[in-house]
Specification:
- This protein is α/β, with parallel strands linked by helices.
- The chain has two domains: 135 residues, Rossmann fold; 125 residues, Nitrogenase molybdenum iron protein domain (Rossmann fold).
- The protein has twelve helices and twelve strands.
- Strands 7, 8, 9, 10, 11 and 12 form a six-stranded mixed sheet that branches. The chain has a four-stranded parallel sheet with strand order 4-3-5-6, with helices on both faces. It has a two-stranded antiparallel ribbon with strand order 1-2.
- The N and C termini lie far apart (84 Å).
- About 2% of the residues have low confidence.
Length: 297
């Protein structure tokens, strides 16, 4: 067989690289729906703040052309055109932006919104993260969808390493019982199927509602009194410590109240399944370590 000329080799290489760059992407989302893209997405709509953060972490922030309200991190995200809130997205605005991919939050946006987007002919990837390992996995998937595989893989491995380090540091520590309060009216917490439950366990804590096989649930004050947690951690909706943290002082018989172990961690650091959850995990682990030290005194 005659040797190929350098010019022909370059031409064949160009064809190979061209076909790879535009190879069809087929990927399952977090609900098991299979989506197909003819090429990496270049015009993306993010319908949840955590999805916006995941895309930036994967190196695809510049490809987001529209984002939901409260997509405020990293700072560059604040400059992205808004398309409405969780369950009141502006469909006309989304269509005008001509996205080739929509990242939606099934629990937050709701199945009707996702169904409507698909009816309009849009490609929708449903994000529904329940476990800590879902976060680095999601970043890698965002990398695949957007052609940023290498950047995404590096970030995912960095997060996995941090999770491993935290787990090794606190796995043998004395357990601390925790009540994590999401909201006050109704009184709500996290069950065993929420990633915050995993964070608590990672830090050597024990979520008093871990036996409930649901992500979130309503709970009565009587149940809190019965479980008598050593620490109460509240989230709220923003920067300030919510006043309902102090409302627990009405129950001085609670160990968390008697020992002054009422804490606040910014919700964006624990309630968004994004890389910043590791910052929230660090804070929660420090809180539980403080409680252990106080118990030993």
């Amino acid at each position: 067989m005659p040797a190929l000329s350098p010019a022909l080799l370059l031409a064949l290489l160009g064809l190979l690289l061209g076909s790879t760059a535009h190879a069809t992407i087929t990927l399952g989302d977090d609900l098991g729906n299979v989506i197909t893209l003819e090429r990496p997405a270049q015009r993306i709509i993010s319908l949840a703040p955590h999805a916006t953060e995941l895309l930036f972490a994967a190196g695809a922030g510049a490809q987001i052309v529209g984002a939901s309200s409260f997509s405020d991190y990293p700072p560059e995200a604040k400059q992205i055109p808004g398309i409405g809130g969780y369950n009141n997205v502006d469909m006309e605005r989304i269509l005008a932006l001509q996205p080739d991919l929509v990242i939606a939050w099934h629990s937050g946006n709701g199945p009707r919104t996702l169904a409507r987007l698909r009816e309009l002919g849009l490609t929708v990837y449903a994000s529904e993260l329940r476990q800590l390992e879902d976060i680095p996995n999601a970043i890698e998937r965002m990398g695949i969808l957007t052609g940023k595989e290498q950047i995404a893989r590096v970030e995912a491995e960095r997060l996995r390493a941090r999770l491993t380090t935290l787990g090794q540091r606190y796995r043998d520590q004395a357990p601390v019982s925790v009540f994590y309060q999401i909201w006050h009216q109704p009184l709500m917490t996290v069950g065993g199927e929420h990633f915050i439950n995993e964070v608590i366990r990672l830090c050597g804590g024990r979520n008093i509602m871990a036996a409930q096989a649901v992500p979130t649930l309503s709970i009565s004050e009587e149940a809190i009194l019965l479980h008598n947690p050593q620490v109460i951690i509240a989230s709220g909706m923003g920067e300030p410590r919510p006043e309902w943290v102090e409302n627990w002082r009405r129950w001085p018989q609670l160990e968390a109240v008697a020992r002054g172990q009422l804490f606040f961690i910014h919700p964006d650091l624990l309630q968004r399944p994004s890389p910043r959850l590791l910052e929230g995990a660090d804070q929660l682990c420090e809180v539980l370590e403080q409680v252990r030290e106080a118990t030993m005194q």
